[in-house]
Amino acid sequence: MKQYETVIGLEVHVELATKTKIFCGCSTEFGGAPNTHTCPVCTGMPGSLPVLNRQVVEFALKAGIAANCRINQYCRFDRKNYFYPDNPQNYQISQLYLPICQDGWVEIETSAGKKKIRIHEMHMEEDAGKLIHDEWEDCSLVDYNRSGVPLIEIVSEPDMRSAEEVIAYLEKLRCMMQYLGVSDCKLQEGSMRADVNLSVREVGSETFGTRTEMKNLNSFKAIARAIDGERERQIELLEMGRAVVQETRRWDDNKESSHAMRSKEDAKDYRYFPDPDLLPVHISDEWIARLKASQPELREEKQQRYQEEYGLSAYDAGLLTESRILSEKYEETADLCGNPKKAANWFMVEVLRLMKDRGLEPEQVTFTPGHLADLIQMVERKEVSAQNAKKVFEKVFEEDIDPVSYIEEHGLKIVEDTGLLEETLQKILEENPGPLQELLGGKEKVFGFFVGKMMKELKGKASPDAVREALTKEIEKRK
Amino acid sequence: MAKIIDDETIENVCILAKLALTEEEKEKAKADMQKMLDYVDKLDELDTEAVEPLTHIFGSDNVFRDDVVTNGDCRKEMLANAPKAREWQYQVPKTIG
Ligand SMILES: [Zn+2]
Predict the structure, then answer these.
(1) ipTM score assigned to the predicted complex
(2) Count of the separate structural domains present in chain B
(3) CA A13–ligand 1 middle distance (angstroms)
(4) Contact: A54, B66; criterion CB under 8 Å
(5) Domains observed in chain A
(6) How many Cβ atoms are within 10 Å of A395's Cβ, its own excluded?
(7) Chain A residue with minimum CA distance to B59
(8) What tens digit of pLDDT does each residue of B2-34 get?
(9) Where are the beta strands (DSSP E) in A98-185?
């Protein structure tokens, strides 16, 4: 059999984290009751007029700058015409002729090393509504809450060659958008979606094969499976001497196979033309300069800084910077406790473990970094045992308790000052001659009585273990 | 020379515009569209080499709104525009989504 190479390009839709829709003042909040976030503009009522949300332009620019794009300082919106009930205007407002960003690149890293993936363009557009099939009435129901939610579509060049590269690219984009605060990129909520354009060709061939486009991919796993499935399907066709048909295919993750969409759905004649309702956008040099100056530190820069400033390994720095939210918590903890390496261990072992156990996303982790920093310092000062500290941290992680007072209150604090322990012991024994005689006489039950007295007197300055140990020793001595 | 509006073109336009025309209407539409294209042909005679393409007749640009929620729940009014509604949603013929 011939050797084949897979050629993949991606169209990634990223939902922007604005409060309102792209052309109207309706909320973009996810999960509202059907049609509670709609108005004449986003339901395409005749006579309604769209007005562009400035924040959408800002977010698109931030994404474009981060992905090394050239900014089209004069850009426009175009109408993409098609009839489908999820699209109430009968056209989608998008950008074809002058997209806001063009010709960029991002770097990905796979087991084979680093590689640049070129970005053809990024453009602003609006999302469509949601169609649900009603089995009872044999009709479809439309919810326009998503209609008009701002998106950027990021179109790559056909630079990827494997599912591994595609996943690395998507993870790169997701991380970048999250760091920029441009999108939360949740695949399960549909705020990041990918269409995969795939073709195969014989290794060494310079020309591209016929490509298909796959839609309906809503998890990284589904994307990887769909790529492998489509690659095999196309190779099989070519091996049988048949041609690959250029078409749009819908991936069914349950069946793990794809099928061609009806040709009517696939009518690619969108008759784009400039939208006369929306005025052109001029992006000044000052605007770009201001955004460039306010770009946050991205993951790669952070990773580098952690190695240089905190002395962490590249691997640890990579793990800690996967999520911007967690990395910020880590940094605050490291700075407050003054021990970045210890803080890194706590995050990589305890924080990640607890997150995994409880199935939490980074944004659901709510403990105060100062509390972990206090705990780390107490362990360092040997005021609490490492074992107890882990238990206390679970409380910090779950309820954000103040570990210092918690440790005091629960008698977990180790008393370095054995003088105090000894002094208290002698005092308690002296004050309770009766029970002491009983204990010396072998009445083990009284042991607990003395431990209790001691703990009360020491007010948690010693651990119960330390008290028991000191008492046992003293009794042995006196026997 | 303008493109000739033939049967195939009018068929395709009908599909894209979701129009069901009778043979008679098709012939009429063909003639109308041919006239439009001939008119564009006439305009093409002008030398527009040095003229920038114009997409908007207003001189202004950068009309923005702030990212502030101004609309509340008005689904009742919105759905009043729908020919058919069910469970606070627009009811449409069965569509493969
Ligand atoms: Zn609206």
Answers:
(1) 0.88
(2) 1
(3) 20
(4) yes
(5) 4-286 (no CATH), 297-409 (no CATH), 418-478 (1.10.10.410)
(6) 17
(7) A279
(8) 578 888 889 888 888 888 999 999 999 999 999
(9) 101-110, 113-126, 130-134, 139-143, 150-156
